[in-house]
Amino acid sequence: MNDPYQNNVNQQLTEAGEYTYSQDGGGQDRYPYQTNYPPQEEDAASDATEGADEDEQMYEGEYQGVPHPDEIKEARRAARLEAKRKARLAAQQEEYDEDNLPEQYETIMEDCGHGRFQWMLFVVLGLALMADGVDGFVVGFVMPSAEKDMCISNSDKGLLGLLVYVAMMVGALVWGGLCDKMGRRKCLIYVLSIDLLFSFLSCFAQSYGFFVFFRFCSGFGIGGSIPIVYTYFTEFLQMDKRGEHLSWLCMFWMLGGLYASFTAWGIIPHYGWGFAIGTEFQMHSWRLFILVCLFPTLAALVGVFFMPESPRFLLESARHDEAWMVLRRVHDTNWKAKGEPERVFTATNIKTPQTQEDEFIEIQSDTGTAFQRWTVRHMTMLQQVANDTTSVPPKSILILTLYTSFLSFSYHGLGVWFPDMIKYMQYEEYESKVRIFHRERVERFHFNFSLVNQVHREGEYIHDKFANIEIKSVKFEDSLFENCYFEDIKSTNSFFENCTIKNTVFYNTDLWQEKFKDCRMENTTFLHPKKGCHLNFQEENDIVIYLVSFLGSLAVLPGNIISALFMDKIGRIRIIGGSMLASSACTFLLLLSFSQGAVICWQCLFYGASVAAWNGLEVISVELYPSSKRGTAFGILNGICKLAAIIASFIFAAFVGITKIIPIFLAFSALVCGGLLALKLPETREKILS
């Protein structure tokens, strides 16, 4: 028996598992116990149930089409299970999408192709890398001139080189981490701007304190360029192009060394290329050299302004639309240059990885100032960088740390040892030609010729005149000067020890108190002395040092070419291991070098063999770590390189002139250990950027 009221009720199941019923009047009722039926008598019963047994009594609502409460509970339970199933499927799909991002990004980069855009970025980032290479040579080239211009002692001279390397180490750690939070492009602009500003100021610093401060700040800036440049360029390359083109990029560091060596050779020895404003401000040739070295930094800074942010970083930051626009720009630029402008960028739905909740703490405007909010945001960012630094996978970072330490220790240690050893050989050769005069007596003689590389012992000089001459590497010991006249004397590395000087006049000379050691002065007059530090640039700036640096930089060209051509063919591990073992053989052969020419020859061979290991290390470093920590990990490794270089420079320099066996043995051992350790590194040739 059908109730006519039942035909006007539509039964529906909601997502929550409840039944709803719609009446013709538009009203909606929820059962049970919420009906608008007319009231019935308490004992009333339907015809269908009249006379039925109590056990067989039918539920009254069932006759009217109303579900039983147990059915409602069962429906709700089923709805909850269905909702959980859908949530579980959605989470699995989200996890799959996140894991699938590297493959999708690689597919998109292959669709964009490799062409004009990558080559433009290659030149811009190469100039930034070249600026880092130039800065690595600046201090060493200007120091012989600057130490005389600003009266720098030997201890202070060593402090300058140490502080610059420390600044570069700190800069690599800080900027490597920040580029994972702020972006590759933005951090590179900051890095180049800091280097440009403080390098420019160092050109005009007249005091040693300001010069050290400006060079320290410049080193802090440019120290972050290497982690950023390689991370930035990697994320625009497809898998089969990474090894080759990152190796080509390394050539710009070589070009930086060539540029610095060539310009130093052409500018610094010309001391007259400058000007002075009074006695307080002087602009000599070595300052002009620093100014010329700013050109690569300036060119790179201008170029970076026209480059976009890394799309991979944008995706990691959940900035999907910006990443899509950058990838479309890469695609259109490349295919338009190839003569196919009609090709359409087909990627429409780029998966964005799930990002952590923003941990920045905002202060409301009514409780804090804009400066307080800015401070909190940036302090929290630095805290995140520190957390990322400590969360880098320990096993992989440990292996790369050991390998980096071995390579950097030997490379930079020998980099200090080579020029110092050449200088020591020059000094030994010079000392072997010294002329010794013993108990000579010279009376009423006019010295109008230069005195060079001589030792005068127990001599007597009576009524003699020394005028318009140069005294270089001359030592007077236990000698007597009586009624002598010195005028317009220029001295270099010359001293008077245990001498007696009577009734003598020094007019317009640079012989000041430091030149006389334990001497007795009687009625001696100094008129118009040349005070301060002076230098004969033509003699002190030996072109051999510039030539050695130039040849050492040029020698890496074959190694760069070989590593670029074979990096993707034979793999990173074989390149690294073979390069380090070949370099160790070159260091062992240094034991057979007994002349300047032999040292220069083995230096060039060592640099040419070891550069392939550097290229392989840089390629594997950017491929091994995920995009969210790539800059941080590379910054750690680069900072370790600088630390190993600082330690090596002190150790290797300490043995110059004592023995060459220990430095060579240390370098040989480090390179062999590094070559064997390279076998533990993972091969990343066919690895998609994670």
UniProtKB/TrEMBL annotation:
Composition-biased stretches (Polar residues): 1-14
Topology in membrane: Multi-pass membrane protein
Keywords tagged on the record: Cytoplasmic vesicle, Glycoprotein, Membrane, Neurotransmitter transport, Phosphoprotein, Synapse, Transmembrane, Transmembrane helix, Transport
A cellular component term, taken from the record's GO annotations: neuron projection
Gene3D superfamilies with a match to the protein in the record: E3 ubiquitin-protein ligase SopA, MFS general substrate transporter like domains
Alphabetical list of Pfam families matching this protein: LD_SV2, MFS_1, Sugar_tr
Major facilitator superfamily (MFS) profile domain location: 121-687
SUPFAM superfamilies in alphabetical order: MFS general substrate transporter (SSF103473), Pentapeptide repeat-like (SSF141571)
Subcellular location: Cytoplasmic vesicle, Secretory vesicle, Synaptic vesicle membrane
Signal peptide, first to last residue: none
GO MF terms held by the record: transmembrane transporter activity
Domain of life: Eukaryota
Acidic residues bias: start-end ranges: 40-59
InterPro entries associated with the record: LD_SV2, MFS, MFS_dom, MFS_sugar_transport-like, MFS_trans_sf, SV2
GO biological process: chemical synaptic transmission; neurotransmitter transport
Membrane-crossing segments per the record: 119-146, 158-175, 187-207, 213-233, 245-268, 288-307, 397-418, 543-566, 573-594, 600-620, 632-655, 661-679
Region (Disordered): 1-66
Family membership noted in the UniProt record: Belongs to the major facilitator superfamily.
Record protein name field: Synaptic vesicle glycoprotein 2Ba
Source taxonomy: Eukaryota, Metazoa, Chordata, Craniata, Vertebrata
